[in-house]
């Protein structure tokens, strides 16, 4: 169950990190509300997962999912540059997340 919570927390991190772009510096009400709720929910689920999982593993997986997801959505939705190297390093992040899962004691 901790891994499921952790993956959901990571996906929420993707949502709030991309959502920050739409808040325009937290000057737009609803995007700001949804972003803040996403931050709170993501952190809560991370904390719950870290009760069972090693904190270094939980945090690494959470950050990896968030960073990779934000990079992909930035390229797909926000017009950020796409290059072979960027894609390579996003894939490397995801390989690292899988590696942390596979080498975890839980």
Automatic annotation (TrEMBL):
Coiled-coil zones:
none
Q: What is its main location?
A: membrane
Q: Which InterPro entries has this protein been placed in?
A: EmrE-like (IPR037185), Small_drug/metabolite_transptr (IPR000390), Small_multidrug_res (IPR045324)
Q: Where in the cell is it found?
A: Cell membrane
Question: Would you tell me the protein name for this molecule?
Answer: Multidrug efflux SMR transporter
* Source organism (scientific name): Streptomyces orinoci (Streptoverticillium orinoci)
Q: Which domain of life is it from?
A: Bacteria
Family designation? Belongs to the drug/metabolite transporter (DMT) superfamily. Small multidrug resistance (SMR) (TC 2.A.7.1) family.
Task: Please report a single Pfam family linked to this protein.
Answer: Multi_Drug_Res
Q: Which UniProt keywords apply?
A: Cell membrane, Membrane, Transmembrane, Transmembrane helix, Transport
The membrane topology of this protein is: Multi-pass membrane protein
Residue ranges spanning the membrane: these are: 29-47, 59-78, 84-103
């Amino acid at each position: 169950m901790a891994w499921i919570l952790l993956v959901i927390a990571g996906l929420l991190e993707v949502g709030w990190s991309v959502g920050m772009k739409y808040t325009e510096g937290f000057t737009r009400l609803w995007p700001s509300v949804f972003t803040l709720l996403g931050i709170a929910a993501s952190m809560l689920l991370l904390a719950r997962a870290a009760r069972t999982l090693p904190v270094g593993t939980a945090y690494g997986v959470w950050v990896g999912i968030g960073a990779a997801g934000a990079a992909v959505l930035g390229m797909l939705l926000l017009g950020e540059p796409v290059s072979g190297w960027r894609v390579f390093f996003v894939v490397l992040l995801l390989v690292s997340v899988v590696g942390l899962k596979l080498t975890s004691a839980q």
